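We were asked to recover a plausible sequence for a given structure. The inputs and outputs are reproduced exactly as logged, with field labels preserved.

PROBLEM: sequence recovery
POSITIONS: 323
GIVEN STRUCTURE:
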């Protein structure tokens, strides 16, 4: 019998041994919890396509964040559902906008929480697109001013990080210039640098009430078959001053995530999006999978591919499940 010198199984015999040599480790510090802020008081409405995710009024969101901080979470990102919408998304940059109110309330209650604000217009426009519309077309340059005003308003309300997600060319540069000119040069930008026109966003659009009233977003979000283009998008945002780059969605674009990680040596985020979350939930509810095990395996794959930061609706559950 041939003597086997190398036996990888030797280090798999117990959880203690497996943990000792584990290459990729999740940490509570990796996670960002997305929250949907809606008008009213005492509102906590579950999103039907995203079990466990709710539309929360400012007071409920403030309590949720405090409890999450006590459980070990350190970062949240806020999305807003305004009382009214218009063609120019005025609710996005209003001083008393829904996200601005939530930022101030959370900051008072949990001052050490990192507050990120999604910087986009689709939740606030009457047509549901991420920019100014003229003759049925989303206008890039005319939308930059509104995105910069939104980021400025969020930063002035107390956000630590603004996160432009509209996929308008030049949005990071416009926001960086506006923040710097306003004396807010210390506010970080997390750019949705590589954001695909994905079919995995459906549940989010229910949660944020942000589906386009006509057409789709393929003219400005990335085409899913393209990987090399991702590096160009990331390079542009990096050159314009992004402090963090993001790939969205996460699990079905792990190859892209790894490519961006290998090219850029700045913090990298990945968004485990609503459809990815909902699929795990649905399969678990059917009894087809072990939800906690699949959740952790999925989040580990994102970390293993190179993400430093993971935006996930599973943030609270993941922290509870960590050893």
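RECOVERED SEQUENCE:
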């Amino acid at each position: 019998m041939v003597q086997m010198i190398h036996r990888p199984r030797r280090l798999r015999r117990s959880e203690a041994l497996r943990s000792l040599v584990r290459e990729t480790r999740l940490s509570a510090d990796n996670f960002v919890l997305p929250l949907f802020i809606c008008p009213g008081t005492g509102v906590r409405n579950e999103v039907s396509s995203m079990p466990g995710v709710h539309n929360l009024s400012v007071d409920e969101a403030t309590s949720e964040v405090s409890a999450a901080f006590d459980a070990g979470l350190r970062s949240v990102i806020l999305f807003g559902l305004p009382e009214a919408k218009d063609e120019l998304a005025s609710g996005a940059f209003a001083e008393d906008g829904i996200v601005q109110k939530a930022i101030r309330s959370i900051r008072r209650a949990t001052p050490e929480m990192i507050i990120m604000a999604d910087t986009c217009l689709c939740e606030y426009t009457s047509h549901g697109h991420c920019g100014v519309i003229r003759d049925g077309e989303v206008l890039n340059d005319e939308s930059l001013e509104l995105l910069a005003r939104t980021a400025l308003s969020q930063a002035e309300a107390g956000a630590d990080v603004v996160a432009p997600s509209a996929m308008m060319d030049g949005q990071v540069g416009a926001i960086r210039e506006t923040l710097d000119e306003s004396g807010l040069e210390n506010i970080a930008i997390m750019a949705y640098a590589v954001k695909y026109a994905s079919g995995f966003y459906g549940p989010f659009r229910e949660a944020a009430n942000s589906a386009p009233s006509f057409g789709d977003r393929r003219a400005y979000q990335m085409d899913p078959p393209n990987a090399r283009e991702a590096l160009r998008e990331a390079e542009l945002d990096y050159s314009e001053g992004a402090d963090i780059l993001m790939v969205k969605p996460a699990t079905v674009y792990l190859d892209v995530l790894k490519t961006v990680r290998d090219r850029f040596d700045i913090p990298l985020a990945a968004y485990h999006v609503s459809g990815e979350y909902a699929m795990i939930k649905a399969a678990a509810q059917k009894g087809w999978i072990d939800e906690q095990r699949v959740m952790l395996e999925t989040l580990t794959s994102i970390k293993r591919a190179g993400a430093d930061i993971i935006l996930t609706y599973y943030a609270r559950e993941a922290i509870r499940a960590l050893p």
